[in-house]
Design goal:
Layout lengths: L34 H14 L3 H9 L9 H26 L4 H21 L11
């Protein structure tokens, strides 16, 4: 039996387009840590609400590392679900003929959710801290 060597192209029906080769992170980097250094980097990444690679990349490139309180992260995730539901309602309202009032209310709520999500990811003192 012959193996198929061609790649199947997925029919993209929406979403973000794929990144170009220059934009993608295709170069792996490896280095050795002492156990205490590794534990410190992992702890700081967790405290900042970032994954380990994201934290290391930000630290090395001297990008801001913001620590977001856990309660804000949880609220942000919950609001993402609310925003998704609002987007679904907006799509449904657009499919209906007499939906102008519903669209106005939905847009107002979407704006409020967007502002609240932006506030939740700010740090308590609005500073960006380097660890």
């Amino acid at each position: 039996m012959e193996e198929e060597t061609t790649l199947k192209v997925k029919n993209n029906k929406g979403g973000r387009p794929p990144k170009s080769l220059q934009e993608s992170r295709a170069v792996p980097v490896y280095w050795r840590w002492r156990a205490d250094e590794f534990a410190l980097a992992k702890r700081r990444a967790a405290e900042a609400g970032m994954d380990y690679a994201e934290y290391c990349r930000a630290a090395i490139l001297r990008r801001p590392i913001r620590t977001v309180p856990q309660v804000n992260r949880e609220s942000y995730i919950q609001l993402a679900g609310v925003a998704n539901n609002l987007n679904q309602l907006t799509k449904l309202a657009h499919q209906q003929q007499n939906a102008s009032v519903a669209l106005t209310v939905i847009k107002d709520v979407q704006e409020a959710v967007h502002k609240l999500r932006a506030e939740l990811i700010k740090t308590e003192n609005n500073d960006t801290a380097h660890h």
